[in-house]
Amino acid sequence: MISRNKEHRKGFEIWFLLSFVILGLYCLFLLYPLGRLFVSSVWVDGHFSMENFRLFFSQSYYYSTIMNSLKIAVSTTAITLILGFTLAYLYSMYEIKGKATLQVIIILCSMSAPFISAYSWILLMGRNGLIRKIIEAILQVELPTIYGFGGILLVLSLQMFPLVFLYVSGALKNIDNSLLEASANLGIKGFPMIMKVVIPLCMPTILAAGLLVFMKSFADFGTPLLIGEGYLTFPVLIYRQYFGETGSNANFAAALCIIAILITGMIFAFQKWLNSRYRFTMNSLHPISRRKARGLSNILIHVFCYGVVAIAYLPHAYVIYTSFKNTSGKIFVDGYSLNSYKMSLFKYARAIPNTFYISIIALALVVILAIIIAYLVVRRGNTVNRAIDVCSMIPYIMPGSVVGIALVMSFNTRPFVLTGTVAIMIIALIIRRIPYTIRSSVATLQQISPSVEEASLSLGVSRMKTFFGITVPMMSNGILSGAILSWITIMTELSTGIILYTNKTMTVTLAIYNFVTRGSYGYAAAFSAILTMITILTLAIFLKFSKSGEITF
Questions:
Q1: Are 318 and 123 in contact (CB under 8 A)?
Q2: pLDDT the model gives residue 431
Q3: Backbone angles phi, psi at 417, to 5 degrees
Q4: pLDDT score recorded for residue 71
Q5: Residue 174's closest CA among 291, 278, 286?
Q6: What is the crossing angle of helices 400-410 and 422-446, to 10°?
Q7: 522: which residues sit within 8 A by CB, 6+ positions away?
């Protein structure tokens, strides 16, 4: 009895210690930088001042960027919800030939940085784009270019609808088919059933997917910078104020960061309020089984699914094609070769090793910390752990540029000089991408009954052995799903990395961005193709170890 009490106390002390260690890390690398950011925004020339905020709201040039970003975010969210939900519904309800391949291609459409898609569309629909020149030659009409609001909306919508597809596909698996049969027996079929039964049952997931798309499109930096031209967005304004070509204004940039946090925080609170109105549980005793559509319906379903996916993947495929075109400096010439690969690897030889080195370390720490945080939040609820849960979600609503600027302001002087190091890159990636793995791990752990762990303890197994031997394996699918999203977003991170990187910490994504901005499209295409192959390999490994054989979030 005494030994069991000692073991219980030891287990309690370990988790108690872990709670304070993790909260301390959040205080040091998240709350402290945000505090420095706030102080910088209101402390000007040695005294308190709200001048930076007054300047922002007094000039339409500045505050119109918020409306531009909100317009992009709202429009992108609406389009992606329609496309993603429709595609997920058809994919889950009907037999589609080659559905496994279709899913992989859908995922590949989203598993790259949005600015890479923007660069791809420049090659297709830019002023000298391939598709634009072909259509103009045939129809003798001048098409609009990819630049401006329409181009940003096109790129982000085709880039992000797969996220909605993955979320909704997972929700549809949890719907009991008897509910749909009962609806049909009551005469509610087809589109009315979708509106009155399917969508309400999927609403929590739809809201979560919508929030993710909204936050990513609002905070996107690379796409508007490349193809926005005169359409200035809020993240681009922040970047230009911090790294201005004619001089920077760090205090004003800090004020912009605070405004960004407040706006996204309000959006997040509104989504949480909406989500609270759709709380319910479902037990899928009779999961939905796919049925085969007949005649014209079957043709239209296949045309829609493969048509949307083909348009979304077209720029990615064209980039891979252009990576093999012969290049002479920045110009494409006749013939095909591996010159783009040779030159890009020569110019940034360390980019690929850096990408794997930084990403693997960041992901390993993300998974370890996410598992511990999920367990603390779900199984050991107290004030400290609730504070950790809140801290873990703050980066979810923060643009990457805000995180980067806050870290630079906080760790560029003694005693913690981290600016320009690999360490600050890894810290930034962990802060930015750990929410995905935490949320999926929490959701999975909440579905595991505590009685399973209690049974293990009653048999004399220690708490730590129970945790690592029983709890963690049972959480594996949720951990893996969150980790795959964290991994891909780590690999394609731009908005934070562009503020923190040096030549020694250059990654593939940053190399692509540098090549694109310099007009070296062949070299950029080569690195983009390499990043695509890394993504395909990652997905293949995930599917091999996934219990379901499919990817859903």
A1: yes
A2: 92
A3: -100, 100
A4: 94
A5: 286
A6: 130
A7: 322, 323, 325, 327, 330, 332, 339, 340, 343
Q: Are 486 and 495 in contact (CB under 8 A)?
A: no
Tokens standing for residue 253 = 């940039």
Tokens for 418? 């981290």
State which H helix or E strand residue 391 sits in.
helix 383-393
94: left (phi over 0), alpha (psi -120 to 50) or beta: beta
92-121: pLDDT as tens digits: 888 888 887 888 788 778 766 677 788 888
328 forms beta bridges with 331
Please provide residue 475's backbone torsions phi and psi, each rounded to the nearest 5 degrees.
Answer: -85, 0
CA distance 118 to 84: 20
Closest CA to 115 of 434, 510, 542: 510
Residue reference for tokens 């609406």: 78
Total residue count of the chain as it appears in this document:
553
Query: 3-class DSSP state for residue 311?
Result: helix
Q: What are phi and psi of 548, to 5 degrees?
A: -85, -20
294's tokens: 């007949």
Nearest to 218 by CA among 176, 261, 252, 271: 261
- Specify the DSSP element, H or E, that contains 326: strand 325-328
How far apart (Å, rounded) are the C-alpha atoms in residues 475 and 356? 26
Q: Is the peptide bond before 399 cis (omega within 30 degrees of 0)?
A: no
Per-residue pLDDT band for 138 (boundaries 50, 70, 90) equals confident
State the virtual CA torsion across 536, 546, 388, 207 in degrees, nearest 10: 80
pLDDT digits (tens, 9 = 90+) for 281-298: 555 556 677 788 888 888
Is 0.70 surpassed by the pTM of this model? Answer: yes
Q: Which residues pair with 291 in a beta bridge?
A: 94
* Phi, psi at 291, each rounded to 5°: -120, 155
**What pLDDT is stored for residue 340 in this prediction?**
86
Q: Which of 550, 420, 551 is nearest to 488 (CA)?
A: 551
Tokens of 392: 């873990």
Which residues on neighbouring strands pair with residue 366, listed in sequence order? none
Residue 429's pLDDT band (boundaries 50, 70, 90)? very high
Structure tokens at 13: 């002390």
Residue 382, amino acid: N
At position 485, the amino acid (one-letter code) is: L
The whole-angstrom separation of Cα 540 and Cα 544 is 6
Sign of CA dihedral 218, 35, 363, 517: positive
And the tokens for 24?
Answer: 């301390």
Token pair for residue 72?
Answer: 């992009």
pLDDT, one tens digit per residue, over 343-363 is 888 888 888 898 889 999 999
Q: pLDDT for 288-340, tens place per residue?
A: 777 888 888 889 999 999 999 999 988 888 888 888 888 776 677 778 888 88
- 144: which DSSP letter? P
Could you tell me the sign of the dihedral formed by the alpha carbons of 136, 227, 536, 304, in that order?
negative
Distance, in Å, from the CA atom of 530 to the CA atom of 536, rounded to the nearest integer, reads 10
CB atoms near residue 400 (< 10 Å)? 27
